[in-house]
Design brief:
The structure is a single chain. The protein has 97 residues and is an all-alpha fold. The protein has three helices and no strands. The chain has helices spanning 3-40, 48-64, 69-94. It holds the Pfam family CM_2. Residues 1-91 form the Chorismate mutase domain.
């Protein structure tokens, strides 16, 4: 493999990484709105039933995409845990239990 080939691969990876960051930023903007809504309406920060549905959905999508479903579940679980932490913090800020 030539250095130029490796460079092109790495440039592609860098573009994909940038897209992932922007997608995550957009996702977190939306989940922040959900968190505010939950805090205002006294809904719990976590929704375990939805989380399980989303994990099952993502595992199916991963399998279709030839991506390890275990990896996709770990990735989504990390994101979900971070969102729940933000939602709980919002509720703490509003004084709602």
């Amino acid at each position: 493999m030539s250095e130029e080939t490796l460079k092109r691969y790495r440039q592609s990876i860098d573009r994909i990484d940038a897209a992932l960051v922007f997608l995550l930023a957009e996702r977190f903007q939306i989940t922040q709105a959900v968190g505010r809504f939950k805090a205002e309406t006294n809904l719990p920060p976590a929704d375990p039933a939805r989380e399980e549905r989303q994990i099952a959905r993502l595992r199916d999508l991963a399998a279709q995409a030839d991506l390890d479903p275990e990896f996709s579940e770990k990735f989504l679980r990390f994101i979900i845990d971070e969102v729940i932490r933000h939602h709980a913090r919002m509720q703490d800020a509003t004084g709602i239990d």
